């Protein structure tokens, strides 16, 4: 699929759904940083976790997010399109972004959808981590906010002249050279571990 830098996809005929499929990047970033902060504050204030535990489980949650980001990008957003339904879902989830990578209003899931996902993760991780869920999910949501920030910056701005340039290069390879490598956006960590780094970077 050849990228179109000037257009934008229309995903739904219904104008309400179409409008709801778009979001300014500042909205979800603000929402999830606020929720992450609130979880840490609540967990510490009501003695579910102490400060050291909050810090440790926060970073664990952030690490977990980078893995979820990688797996979702590789196996969900780039799912096989061998049936019409899969092709439609893949285009809704991610294909439209590859076709119109400069469409700034489609660089994040609509907040309604992402909040539902966040709620589900909270209850799942509560079963796994118990009271430490406040630190874990705070880190997870902060990781998502950082992912959104990086993803937006990579598509909206020229690469900086510092070490962060590697993120721009990494994601550009995924978009413009080989969509089957460089799945990590906020970090190339899991590309290194799972063998999907671009060939020149190996």
TrEMBL record:
Presence of the UniProt keyword Phosphoprotein in the record: no
Compartmental location: Endoplasmic reticulum membrane
Cofactors, names only: Zn(2+)
Main subcellular location: endoplasmic reticulum
Superkingdom, taxonomy of origin: Bacteria
Signal peptide feature range: none
Pfam families to which the protein is assigned, alphabetical: FA_hydroxylase (PF04116)
GO cellular component: membrane
Membrane-topology descriptor: Multi-pass membrane protein
InterPro entries recorded: Fatty_acid_hydroxylase, Scs7
Example of a GO biological process term: fatty acid biosynthetic process
ATP-binding is among the record's keywords: no
Keywords in alphabetical order: Endoplasmic reticulum, Fatty acid biosynthesis, Fatty acid metabolism, Lipid biosynthesis, Lipid metabolism, Membrane, Metal-binding, Oxidoreductase, Transmembrane, Transmembrane helix, Zinc
Domain called Fatty acid hydroxylase: residue spans: 58-196
Entry GO MF terms: fatty acid 2-hydroxylase activity; iron ion binding
Ranges annotated as spanning the membrane: 21-42, 48-72, 107-125, 131-154
Name recorded for this polypeptide: Fatty acid hydroxylase superfamily protein
Organism: Pontibacter ummariensis
Lineage: Bacteria, Pseudomonadati, Bacteroidota, Cytophagia, Cytophagales
